[in-house]
Amino acid sequence: MLKLHLRKISTMPTSSVNYPQEFIQFLNSSPTPYHVVHNMKKHLQDHGFQELDERESWHGNVKKNSKYFVTRNNSSIIAFVVGGQWAPGNPIAITGAHTDSPVLKIKPISKRSSEQYAQIGVECYGGGIWHSWFDADLSIAGRVLVNDKASGKIISKLVDLKKPLLKIPTLAIHLDRDVNQKFEFNKETQLLPIAGLVKKSTSQSCCADKTDLKESEFLSVKSIIERHHKDLLDLVAKDISIKDVTEIEDFELILYDHKPSCLGGLHDEFIFSGRLDNLTSCFTSMHALTEAADTNIQDETGIRLLACFDHEEVGSSSAQGADSNFLPNIMERLTSLKCDGTDKTNPLGRNYLLESSAKSFFMSSDVAHGIHPNYSSKYESQHKPQLGGGPVIKINANQRYMTNSPGLVLVKKLADEAKVPLQLFVVANNSPCGSTIGPILASKTGIRTLDLGNPVLSMHSIRETGGSDDLELQINLFRKFFEKYSELEQNIIV
Asked: What's the whole-number mean pLDDT along residues 423-430?
C-alpha cells in the first residue's frame, strides 16, 4: 500500500533514464573511492566536462558556458558549470557528498597464518557494523602503485579482483551456545579473514624474512612480497596486466562484499547493497549536475558545483577530505577568474571569494535514518522517515546537522516547483546523533548550509537497504537547485 501511495504523489515527468538500474551498475563498478571517482570522471567526460589540474594555472583556461572537473588523490572530485553571466562575487550552488564507506582495509604487512590457514591482516576503517561482515563472501579492490620501467615513473592503476577470495567465518553454535544472546568478538584477532590453506611446500620460503641482505640490496621497508601473500600479489598483477609482481611498489586495497548490488522487494522498491552511504548522494548529485549543465546556462549568473570528498567516515581531516582546503581553494580560483579571456591582463582587486561565499548555498547530502519497523521505539515519535518517501531534511539543535529555517524555506520552494515530497528528521533526545560534512564546511567557509539525504536502513552495514524511488526524487530536487538557486538566492534575506 505504501508503494502505491508514493507513486501517486510523485507526479513529476518520468525520466528516460532508469535511475535504479543505472545506480546498481554504478554501485557494482565502484567498490572503492578510487573507482567512484573514476566512474564519475567517465560520466562527466561523456557529458562534455573537461578535466583541470590543480598543479596548473587556470587563468585563461576556464570560460563561461563551459563545464569542468578536478580531482584530488583520485578519491575526491569537484565538478562545476560556469554560467554565461558569471562574474566574480556571484553565488555558487553546491551539493556535497562523500565517496568513502566503512570498510576493512588490508594492513601494510598483511601476511598471517594460523592452523594451516593463510589469513589477511585487516584494519577497521570508519564505524562499521562489523558483525555484518562475518560469513560474507569478500573480494578485494583498490589502487596499486606500479614501477613502470619503460617510462621510469610510478603510475597508479585501479584493481578489482571481482571474485570471492576471503571469508570471516563465525564460530559454530555448538561451540558457543550464547552466540544468539550477544555476539561479541575481538576486532584484532577474530575479525581476521581466511584466504586459503597454507601450502606446506612453500610456507617456509614465503614467510621467511631476508636477514642477510648485502648493502647493495638494502630496502628501507620490507619488499611487497615479504609483507603480503605471494598468491594475492599474483592475482593483483594479473588483474592490472603486469608480469612481474616486483613491479608493484605499494597498494591500498579494500575488502568488499562480492555479492552484487541489486533491486529487491515485491515491487523492486528496495536497493540492497553496500556503500549506499554515501554513493547514493554521489550518484544523484552527478546526474543532477549533468542534466542541469545546459539548462538556461547562458543566462546563469552563478556557478553550479558538486563536491564529493574522501575520508568522511573517519572525520574528514585529510588532504582530500571535507576539512581540507580542496573546496575553499577551488572557490578561490573561480572567484579570481572573469572567465572571459581577460584573466591574465586584468587581475581582480576585490576579495570576491568572501562575496561569493556569502551568497552561496551548500546542500550537504548524506543518507538519513529510515524508520525501522522492528525498532520504531528508537526514533523520535513524530519524525520517522519512510523509504520511498523522498529526501529527508536533517535537523539538530546541537548543530550536528546545519539545517536552519532560511535553508528549509529555500529547499521547500525548490521541492514545490520540482514536485518532490520532503521528510523531516530529528533524533530522539535519548539517542546519539551522527554528523556530516555539513558542519565542517559551514564553519570553514561561512556558506549557508542545509543537511539532507535519502533514507536507508542498516546504515554502516556491509549490506544496506535504500528506496529505489528516492533516487529520482533527489535528482529532481538537486537539478532544480542547480537551475534556480541564483534566482531564488536574492529573495531569501537573513
From this structure: 94
Q: Which cell numbers hold the place of 166?
A: 576471503
CATH 2.30.250.10 fits domain 103-257: yes
CATH 3.40.630.10 fits 2-101+274-489, yes or no: yes
Which pLDDT tens digit goes with each residue over 211-226?
A: 444 445 677 888 899 9
Structure confidence by residue, pLDDT tens digits, 4-45:
333 333 434 456 889 999 999 999 999 999 999 999 999 999
Render pLDDT for 236-256 as a digit per residue (tens, 0 to 9): 999 999 999 999 999 999 999
Residues of each domain in the chain carrying CATH 2.30.250.10 = 103-257
- Asked whether 97 and 278 are in contact (CB, 8 A), the reply is yes
**Residue ranges of the chain that CATH labels 3.40.630.10:** 2-101+274-489
Residue 209, burial from CB neighbour count under 10 angstroms (0-12, 13-18, 19+): exposed
- Cis before 147 (ω within 30): no
With b meaning 16 or more CB within 10 Å and e meaning fewer, what string describes 138-154? bbbbbbbebeeeeeeee
Pairing label, strands 423-425, 392-394: parallel
Distance CA 470, CA 455 (A): 8
